[in-house]
């Protein structure tokens, strides 16, 4: 019961605890920064700190090793869950499932349809938002479109492939697509570059 009432508001690095912003909008921006290949990995933490005021201006966090700070940020972003088991058992799909810039209206509509929550007006902790986001069902247009984008056409019967290809192209992410990498690959690259 305490996990429901006491959502985390900080990350621990070594023995120190650092408060951070927990609003879902901030963490959507964190995700954008993490996925942005135009921002060098060793600058991502500074961009988050300065542009999002992620740590409420607490400069003491920069006394910690950069890889430890990034590990703390990634851990919070993943809701303190370790993805190792789930990613080992699944074949990685390299299609881009969603993009907040392109899909935010669809995501807002999905939250309204499924939960009656207006994302443009509500305050939600990142953990609450992400749990609800992950729970969106195929009844919403957003999840249907994500399905079209990530369908493995080669696994479909031949008679369904033409329509699936058409839907995949129709709903493809339009902006410049970064190299297709998994979340694990992005995290490993960020941590490796910070150790340099």
Q: In total, how many beta strands? A: 2
What proportion of the residues is helical, as a percent range?
40-55%
Question: What class would the helix/strand composition place it in?
Answer: mainly alpha
| Outline type | globular
**Cα separation of the termini:** 42 Å
Radius of gyration: 18 Å
Output the helix-strand order: HEEHHHHHHHHH
Largest sheet, if any?
A: 2 strands, antiparallel
Q: Write out the strand line-up for the largest beta sheet, numbering strands in chain order.
A: 1-2
Helix count, DSSP H or I runs of 4 or more residues = 10
Poorly predicted spans: 85-91
Strand content: under 5%
Write down the overall mean pLDDT.
89
Quick description:
55% of the residues lie in helices and 4% in strands.
Structure explained in plain terms:
- Helix content is 55%, strand content 4%.
- It has 196 residues and is mainly alpha-helical.
- Strands 1-2 form a two-stranded antiparallel sheet.
- A hairpin with a 2-residue loop joins strand 1 and strand 2 (16-19).
- 14% of the residues are buried.
- The model is unreliable at 85-91 (pLDDT under 50).
Write out key terms for the chains shown.
mainly alpha, 2 strands, 10 helices, two-stranded antiparallel ribbon, 196 residues
């Amino acid at each position: 019961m305490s996990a429901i009432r006491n959502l985390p508001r900080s990350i621990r690095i070594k023995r120190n605890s650092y408060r951070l912003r927990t609003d879902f909008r901030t963490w959507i921006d964190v995700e954008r920064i993490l996925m942005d290949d135009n921002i060098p990995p060793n600058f991502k933490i500074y961009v988050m700190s300065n542009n999002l005021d992620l740590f409420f201006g607490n400069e003491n966090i920069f006394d910690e090793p950069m890889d430890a700070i990034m590990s703390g940020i990634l851990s919070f972003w993943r809701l303190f869950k370790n993805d190792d088991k789930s990613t080992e058992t699944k074949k990685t799909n390299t299609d881009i499932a969603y993009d907040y810039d392109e899909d935010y209206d669809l995501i807002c509509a999905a939250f309204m349809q499924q939960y009656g929550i207006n994302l443009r007006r509500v305050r939600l902790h990142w953990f609450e938002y992400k749990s609800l986001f992950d729970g969106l069902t195929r009844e919403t247009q957003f999840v249907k479109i994500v399905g079209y984008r990530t369908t493995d056409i080669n696994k479909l019967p031949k008679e369904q492939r033409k329509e699936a290809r058409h839907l995949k192209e129709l709903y493809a992410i339009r902006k410049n697509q970064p190299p297709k990498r998994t979340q694990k690959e992005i995290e490993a690259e960020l941590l490796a570059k910070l150790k340099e």
